[in-house]
């Protein structure tokens, strides 16, 4: 029913080591209930917009998908990834966290891409303590299924570099020239 999942999956796999996970796979046969088709379509369109460089459009489409079915995790995931690319880190992390909560406990692959997306987003902006925690959550989740991906996530956590602190604006330095005559 969700033949266009390939596009959503492609975006999800672009985030990193999840692409190699042997034990975690994208859902192959999703039994979509009534009303979920619209959300799935909007989610797919959001993923396409994001892949085509239209992050703002992706956010709009993902928001429509969320309104169509607030329990579908994929629009939250797509919104989070689009917000991350727009530099809206806090909103991205919140949306990715919402996606993670909505994936069933049996959908380890879905949960893993949401957690990894959060970890990667935090790492990209140098919020290393939070990124390390998220990478460890990801590693703990996938380790029973793919020990190499767990090790890779821990390596990424270890190589996170904090963002440089911008210097505070200084007061204007006094000039050495006399004031202009009136």
Commentary on this structure:
Mean pLDDT is 82; it is low at 1-22, 27-35 and 173-178. Helix 7 packs antiparallel against helix 8 (147-158). The protein is mostly helical. The chain is flat and about 40 Å long. The chain has helices at residues 5-13, 36-51, 55-68, 73-85, 89-102, 108-124, 128-142, 147-158.
The percent range for helix content is: 55-70%
Biggest β-sheet, characterized?
Answer: none
Average pLDDT figure? 82
Spatial shape: flat
Low-pLDDT segments, ≥5 res = 1-22, 27-35, 173-178
Strand residues, percent: under 5%
Number of spatially distinct domains = 1
Query: The CATH topology, please?
Result: Serine Threonine Protein Phosphatase 5, Tetratricopeptide repeat
Cα-atom Rg, whole angstroms?
20 Å
Helix/strand structural class: mainly alpha
Please outline what is shown here.
With 182 residues, the chain is mostly helical.
